[in-house]
Amino acid sequence: MREFRERIAAAQPGRADTDRRWIYVPYDRLTDETGPLTEQPAAETGVVMMEALGKARRRPYHKKKLGLILAGERHFALRQAARGVKVIYLFTEGDHVDGFTEAQRLLGEREMAIMQPAERELRLDVDRARKTGVRLSEVKDTTWLSTEADFDNCYRLSGSQILEAKPLVMDRFYRAMRTKTGILMRGGKPVGGRFSYDAENRRPWRGKPRPPRRPSFAPDAITREALEQVAELFPESFGSIEGFDLPVTREQALEAWRFAREHLLAEFGPYEDAMSSREPDLFHSKISAALNVSLILPGEVIADVVKDADKGRIPLASAEGFIRQVLGWREYMRHVHRVTDGYRKIHGGHPPRDPYAGAKPSALDAHRKLPAAYWGVKCGWNCVDTVVEQVMREGWSHHITRLMVLSNLATLMGVEPRELTDWFWVAYVDAYDWVVETNVLGMGTFGDGGVTATKPYVSGAAYIHRMSDYCEGCRFDPKKATGEGSCPFTALYWSFLERNAERLEGNMRMAMPLVTLAKKPAAERKALRERAEAAINELESARY
Questions:
Q1: For the chain, what is the domain count?
Q2: Which neighbouring-strand residues pair with 52?
Q3: Strand pairing partners for 253?
Q4: d(C-alpha 108, C-alpha 148), whole Å
Q5: Sign of the Cα pseudo-torsion (453, 459, 462, 468, in order)
Q6: Per-residue pLDDT tens for 297-338?
Q7: Which terminus, N or C, of the chain has the lesser number of Cβ atoms within 10 Å?
Q8: Alpha helix segments (H runs only) across 234-269
Q9: 523 lies in a domain?
Q10: What's the CA gap between 111 and 104, in Å, rounded?
């Protein structure tokens, strides 16, 4: 990393910099558009940044995620140096506590400000560092669009109270935030007369319209150094570093966003649930990785979408669908993570003794291991192989492939929710504890028993066949549930319902499929069960 070290050296503080305000900038808050970096002139500001290899080695994170974070941090440090900010940039073999300790030694008695960390893991590091005498003062994280009170008042939560008997339905929070902010509202009512246009955004994609070619971001010298370091230090990590073209600076993130606004979002709504092997990204903006490290801010993108919708550049259904993901799901998920302490406070969460270990809620008593197909071993199920291949290559796939292929299969099989959660955390470039644990332990697997979802999001082959082209050329026939060449998803679905019928009894949204299951002859149910068992055995017999 010779290039970076030489360029950042000029920004190191001297004796004349003792009176600057010193701010620790976390790996996921790379912004000078909001927060403490905006509260005083650059000439009065100093930042502390660090690369903690202990954190990077905590899991075999996707190589592209590691590359994004290292390159993003280094570019941000140089951005601050160019503004006249002094920079202490540390490299530690240990974790963030070791880095904080070294920073305190260099700063003497001076205090560091830090925006309240988004990740629970970093909050733990901050608490540990404080106990050793490191002076860290937390300030409000102004990258979020909602407050703790917004969420707690919406569900009438107080203290550590969690309403397990009643799901924390996202739509309730989303409507409250729309009302509070006035986003897509007019005269106190939603523009167009409805809060949600989700029912209109479920079209399969059949080849037209064709998505345009996206901009790519060739690594510069700083990014190449980061990628070379990842290849050298983390050869066994998940995925590939080849073809890295993620935006790692604010300017690049803004360029990617401008392209999405101009060329993608108009078609996003109708096809947001569609899946395609030919065009896996379709009309998704793919800004989640940049958004989650704050290279671009949620308030910015929402304001842009509202402006474009007002001018007729983006249809209302597309604008609302995008805003629901950012103002709705994204904010909602971080609050659920906060109030449940990463699901440690819910019944069945099994709080581990190690505070860094993940909670293990499993409301459906699912405890199988994650099959090798998720780690790249071909299983011959075209939908699964196609999506996993994309994730290994890019560290990303859109939300429906995550939910209705990857999470669906694991849930139908009875995979331990924690196993799948940890895989998502490793495999995706936009995965951090506050978003991945709630999405997978909750909506993805129903491991939380209904805190975040009113029913398990599972399906047989019919949904995948209707919403994708994955079944074309697959060795399985989606129209056959049993027998030779039958698609195992359908048998797995009915077997899942049979296995969990007692647990799901009383769930109104599952009443119809359970009634349908009960009407099936015993011989048919037996054939479905045997087909499901054979499919599971096939997946579990594969080795890494």
A1: 3
A2: 92
A3: none
A4: 34
A5: positive
A6: 999 999 999 999 999 999 999 999 999 999 999 999 999 999
A7: C
A8: 250-263, 265-268
A9: yes
A10: 8
CATH of the domain at 281: 1.25.40.80
459 within domain boundaries: yes
536 and 400 in a common domain = yes
Tokens of 164: 């397990």
User: Nearest-5° angle of CA 421, CA 416, CA 462?
Assistant: 85
Instruction: Look at residue 449 and tell me if it is in a domain.
Output: yes
Q: Residue 7 is part of a domain; what is its CATH number?
A: 3.40.50.620
Q: 178 and 122, same structural domain?
A: no
In what side-by-side order are the strands of the sheet with 86-92? 86-92, 45-52, 21-24, 112-115, 136-139
Coarse DSSP helix, strand, coil percentages of the chain, rounded to the nearest 5 percent = 50, 5, 45
Quick check: bond before 36 cis, omega within 30?
A: no
Beta bridge pairs of residue 87: 47
* Of 474, 476, 473, 521, nearest in space to 494 by CA: 521
Residues 292 and 419 both lie in one domain:
no
CA distance linking residue 322 with residue 292, whole number of Å:
16
pLDDT in tens, 132-174: 999 999 999 999 999 999 999 999 886 545 544 467 899 999 9
Same domain for 268 and 403: no
The yes-or-no verdict on residue 126 having pLDDT over 50 is: yes
Residues 297 and 381 in one domain: no
For residue 149, count CB atoms less than 10 angstroms from its CB and return exposed for 0-12, middle for 13-18, buried for 19 or more.
exposed
Q: How many CB atoms lie within 10 A of CB 499?
A: 17
Angle at 224 between CA 218 and CA 227, to 5 degrees: 110
pTM score above 0.85 = yes
Length of the chain: 544
Residue 169's alpha-carbon distances to 151, 194, 328, 455, in angstroms, are 11, 17, 11, 11
Contact 70, 230 (CB under 8 A): yes
Is 358 a domain residue? no
Residue type, 130: R
**DSSP string across 329-394:** IIHHHHHHHHHHTTTTTSTT----SSTTSPP---TT---BPPPGGGGT---S-HHHHHHHHHHHHH
Same domain for 409 and 292, yes or no, is: no
| 407 DSSP 8-state letter | I
Distance CA 358, CA 504 (A): 25
